[in-house]
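Entry:
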Amino acid sequence: MNTKNMNNTSETFKNGAYGANNAFAEQGRPMYAEEATHGSYGALLLHPEWKKCRERILARDFRKCRNCGSPDELEVHHRQYHFYLSQNKYAEPWNYPDHLMITLCKRCHARGHQLFQVPTFYVE
């Protein structure tokens, strides 16, 4: 197993796997949504639309972790979450631009969530 950068914050993490900036931050909205929840997020990951999206991201990233290069136990990570104020809910996991998703192995994904909080952007 390739363990490149596992002992330190990796270049992938430092360069935006967790917390990519975009125009939502310029709206003056709070960056994190501690008060909001994802509800039954796990159930959404069984949806056919998510399965298609996940497959597309895995293929784009050559079925390897973008952090350590491992081909094992791959997951698709969202660099940010979008909360729609008018609907009072988060976007479905497949309704994000591809550039806001990245392939990580289970270990790097868990480590990233330990080190960083994924920003939530509020959308009107």
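The chain has a mean pLDDT of 79.
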